[in-house]
Every structure is written in C-alpha cells, then in structure tokens.
Amino acid sequence: MQKSPVVIIWAGLAVAAVTGIAIAPKIIGLSVIDSLNAHVAQINDIPPYKAMVKEVKSGWFNSSAVITVSVSFPEMDAEQQTFTFDLNFDAQHGPVLMGESLTFGREAWSLSYQGENLRSNLDFAADQAFYVFNAKTDLLGSTAISDHIVPFNIQTTENDEPVSLSFSGYQGSGDVHGNNITYIANIDKVSIDSTSKQAKIDNIHVDSQLKANMEQIFSGEMYDSLVKVTIASMSFTDSENPSLNSNIQNTLLSGESVTDRNKKIFHILSSYSVEHYDVMGSVGQDLRLNVDMKNLSSDFIKAYQAQIQNVVKNPQSDPNVVQQQLMDFLNNNLLDLLIASPEFNIAQVSGNLEQGKFNGQLFTKLVNITHLPDNLLDNAFWLSHLQASTHIEIEQSVAQMIAVLVLESQLKANPELAQATPEQINEIAMQQAPIMLQNLVQQGLLEATAEGYQLVAELKDSQANINGNPIPLPIP
C-alpha cells in the first residue's frame, strides 16, 4: 500500500527533529568549551590576571572544567605576590536542558568559587560555595544571568578588642541580549561591631545598563552605559565618644558613558548626591556634585590602555626609563586627546548646609589645538587654548564658615600661636573672618549680593577676568 506524501513528509520531519535533538547537545558542548577557552584567552590579555583551563570533561549532555586563576600583586611581599584560586565550570547542552526540571534552551552553565581557603577567616555555610554565577541561553540567543555571594561573618580582634563583621550576602540578576546587557544587584546590610563602636551600611542597590557584548567589555572598547548605585543609609556610632556619631541618608552615585563612534570620542557623566547627612555634628541636605568629562578621544584611551598593559608586563625600576616612557607616550598620543577639544566640567556643585546654601559651576575646555608645543610645560601655549568659566553663589553664613576654616588653618601654622587653645584660635578666626570677606569684596574677587556673595570668572584667548575685573596671567 502506497503511503501518503504528507505522511512521508511528517515522518521525515520527525526523524530530522529527533536526530537534531540527539546530535545538537554534542555540537553545543563543543562550542561551549571553545567559548570558554576564548574567554580565558581574553582574561590572559588583562594584567595582572592569568587563567588556565584544566580537567576538561565533555559529555553528550554536559561538560565541566576547572579554571585556575592567579592574580599578581608586584608591590606585595614575595610570599603574598600571587593569589591563586580555582573556579568550577559546569554546563548543560541543549536543546533539552536536564537540570532540576526539563526545559528547552541552547545551553546553561555555572561558575562557582568554593572559597575553602577563605574559611580560616570567614564563617559561611558549610554546604554552599562562596560565589556562584549562573547563565542560561534560550533557543533565540538571549541569556538570563544571576549570581550571588553567600552571607558570611568575620570575628577578629583590634587593639585587644573583639570586632565582628557581618555581610548579609549579595544577589544579582540580569539579561544579555545581543549588544544589550542589563544587571541589578542588592546587598541588604554590612555591619562592623566592636565593644563601643558600630558602623553599618543598609540596602546597597546597583542598577546597570550596558550597550555592549562580552567581547567589547573584555577588549576594553568604549561603549554606552549607565550605572547607578544607591545606598539607603550609612551610620557610625561611638558610645565612648558620641561627638563622632554620623549618619548619611540616601546616597546616589551615577556614571554614564556616551560614545560617538563616527567622531571617535566619548563622554563620561558622573553624579553624586546625598539627601541628608549628620556627620560629627555637622548637618546638611541635598548635596550634589555633577562632573562631566566630554570629547575624550577613543584612540588616546586605547593607546593608554596598551601603555598600562606594557608597563605591568614589563615593569621598570629605573626612574629615568619610566620618565622617558611617559614622555614617549605623550609625544606619540597626546595630540589625539587634544585635537578632540576635551572638556572637564563641574556642571553642578550645590548643597543646603546648616549655615545656608551654596551653588556653583565650572566649565573648562581646550580648543583649536592642531599641534603639540615644543615644551609641554609652555604656559603661554596652554592658556591660549584654554577656555574656562565659573559661577559661584554662596550665602553669607556659609561664606563666614569657610573664611573661619581658612583662617583657623593659617593661625594654627603661626608659631606665635603655638600655645593657643582651639577655642582661642576659633575666637580669633571669628573676629577676622568678616574683615577677610570685606577685603575680598574690595579687591573685586567677591561680589556682594542680597543673600551673600557671588564669583563670576572667565578665561578666553589668554585673557582672564573675575567679576568683570581683568586678572594678569603668568605669561612671559
């Protein structure tokens, strides 16, 4: 009896599917080991790390290996110069992943550090590895990742006083899809306790987004990224000396990199802020510092990375050789950085202190540079290409506080006041501070406002002024 063509087609597809499922794990297993070897080779290109794959076992549905990693510290004593540890690598090969439950996927693998050599100092669960990283790639090529550090405690003594450190553990998770990587992580609590002192950090959270693949990251190539770290609170208490007690609430650290591949430049934008602080009796809120570095040459950074790797691989003890290497590097690469017109800006520095408010900006830029000067220390050359401007506003009470601090520092260095008490030094500074501020106003270095003082300064075309008053520059 002749079989239907449809039956034959479906039978063929079924055979092909079964054959694919049977053969695919071995093919995927070979690619997993090849990928592992490639990543280890990339690690070996990054000083001071060295890695070696050993004890490779490749089966049909799984594979494993041990990676020995060593980190060298040239500045440390000979006995401690190299720290070596083993990472256990275990992988499952798809398309059927046989883990705790049957699922479909291309591959799943884990990397773990048992941390047995740490147990002499750290106390953590006997049945857990110190660090574990997991990854699972689905059939479409997207990878889900997670990692964790086990909670641990440390018991030690400092000046014959018992000290304990408690770490709540670290948990991270994310996704890798093409040239996009997202990753978040949390640490609930870190605390250090002694008989009379306690330091504590609560709720550390990391949120990162990278527009890059692993090859770009390993190679040191520039890529777009945004990383934010938030800390809910940091505190320190001393029952024997309460004046040292401190508390900082809601800290944010943010870093963003933006690349322009056509122009071969990138920008680094950093932000730091504190919502509220009470540090050793000083109270304030809404502190903010935004720092931007713009128009940085990608070619210069690549050359700098190569130079650092060369220095690490071939350390020099002769200071003359080191100096010559630096000059050679600058002569060969500095122009790449300068032609791009790099900027360093403090886009915002502000805060609300107990004494009052302050706010300021600073913008600097090197422009129109087409060649290096014969002498890199030529002030006239750099001033002719430097553009800078700043605007600072400060309330009266804050200006008074800063003036007192400056005067106290000067008075303490005066040998005639070597026997004066801190209270006497402060009294003299408080008396002289208004006179100092008035002198700065008369000289044009400060301008009085309704709230306090301001300073507006500009430098361009080798001409400088403060509050509209010309300022001579150190040009021969």
Characterise this structure.
- The chain starts with a helix and ends in a 5-residue tail after the last strand.
- The N terminus is likely disordered.
- The protein has a domain of 122 residues.
- The chain contains 7 helices and 24 strands.
- The protein has a 22-stranded antiparallel sheet that branches. A two-stranded antiparallel ribbon has the order 4-5.
- The longest helix has 40 residues.
- The chain has 476 residues and is an alpha+beta fold.
Write down how many β-strands occur, each being a DSSP E stretch of 2 or more residues: 24
| Percent helix range | 25-40%
Category from helices, strands and their pairing = alpha+beta
Query: How many whole angstroms does the radius of gyration measure?
Result: 30 Å
Number of separate helices: 7
Low-confidence residue ranges: 1-30, 76-80
Sheet having the most strands:
22 strands, antiparallel
Strand content of the residues, in percent? Answer: over 45%
Mean pLDDT, to the nearest integer, reads: 85
- The end-to-end span amounts to 107 Å
From the spread of the alpha carbons, the general shape counts as: globular
Question: What is the gist of this entry?
Answer:
The protein is α+β, with helices and mostly antiparallel strands and 476 residues long. The protein is 27% helix and 46% strand.
Topology:
Blueprint: H1 5-44, E1 49-58, E2 62-72, E3 82-93, E4 96-98, E5 102-104, E6 107-113, E7 131-137, E8 143-149, E9 152-158, E10 161-167, E11 170-177, E12 180-193, E13 197-211, H2 214-219, E14 224-238, E15 246-260, E16 265-279, E17 282-297, H3 298-313, H4 319-339, E18 343-353, E19 357-366, H5 379-385, E20 386-395, H6 396-412, H7 422-442, E21 447-448, E22 452-460, E23 463-466, E24 469-471
Antiparallel strand pairs: 1-2, 2-3, 3-6, 4-5, 6-7, 7-8, 8-11, 9-10, 10-12, 11-12, 12-13, 13-14, 14-15, 15-16, 16-17, 17-18, 18-19, 19-20, 20-22, 21-22, 22-23, 23-24
Helix pairs in contact: 3-4, 6-7
